[in-house]
Design a protein that fits this description.
Elements (H helix, E strand, L loop, with lengths): L2 E10 L15 H8 L4 E2 L8 E3 L2 E4 L2 E3 L5 E3 L11 E5 L11 E8 L7 H14 L5 E10 L5 E7 L7 E9 L2 E9 L8 H11 L1 E2 L2
Helix pairs in contact: 1-2
Length: about 200
């Protein structure tokens, strides 16, 4: 990842249950950010995505889904502009599949105020910390297309479930690419797939 790591901290937070909900729904901490004073969830126009020239076109931009990943047949969220992707042809080893969601939101921060946006997200995550052991880490940099990017991770690689949230910063808007990894042995490219979606994203005009 281009950029620099700006935070590594051991923390206590609720990693299971309330912290991560099923099938890639946004964690309670991220939901607080999306629904609170900072970003607003589901602010994209209620318009379906369309696939053209190998890209997924949505009202706010476009991105590419890596080969071997597909749109989930039964998304578990009704939020406008939120799409879930799972590994093609893989039956989940556990109750839920490893998945990647792509979601649009708005906030009050201009592009050049992205550090304030980062601080607001981090503050909301810290407010959700509880009594269970876990790890919160973050880094900042840019996507391959030059957009400001913040990455937040919750959970260790050997945990039963972990999550990584990528925030692509726009002008008073953002896109959240959220990987919920149940560490299914049949899905070995989840991290790479999420990052490929992030790096292929282009804001619409």
């Amino acid at each position: 990842m281009k950029g620099k790591k700006w935070l590594i901290c051991a923390a206590v937070l609720v990693l299971m249950g309330a912290m991560l909900s099923a099938c890639g729904l946004v964690s309670e901490a991220a939901r607080a950010v999306l629904n609170g004073e900072t970003p607003q969830q589901g602010s994209a126009p209620e318009e379906s995505a369309r696939q053209e020239d190998g890209l997924i076109h949505v009202p706010y931009g476009s991105y590419k889904v890596p080969e071997g990943w597909e749109l989930a047949s039964e998304p578990t969220s009704e939020a406008a502009g939120k799409y879930f992707y799972v590994k093609s042809g893989v039956e989940p080893a556990g109750e839920y599949p490893t998945n990647i969601s792509v979601e649009y939101g708005t906030n009050r921060y201009a592009v050049d105020e992205h550090e304030q946006f980062r601080t607001a997200i981090l503050r909301q995550l810290q407010m959700q910390m509880g009594g269970d052991d876990g790890t919160l880490f973050g880094s900042g940099g840019n996507t391959e297309n030059g957009y400001t990017l913040y990455r937040f991770g919750i959970g260790e690689d050997d945990a039963e479930v972990s999550t990584v949230q990528y925030y692509i910063v726009g002008e008073r808007e953002f896109v959240l690419v959220h990987l919920t990894d149940f560490h299914d042995p049949a899905v070995t490219d989840a991290d790479e797939a999420a990052r490929a979606i992030v790096d292929s994203f282009v804001w619409g005009e």
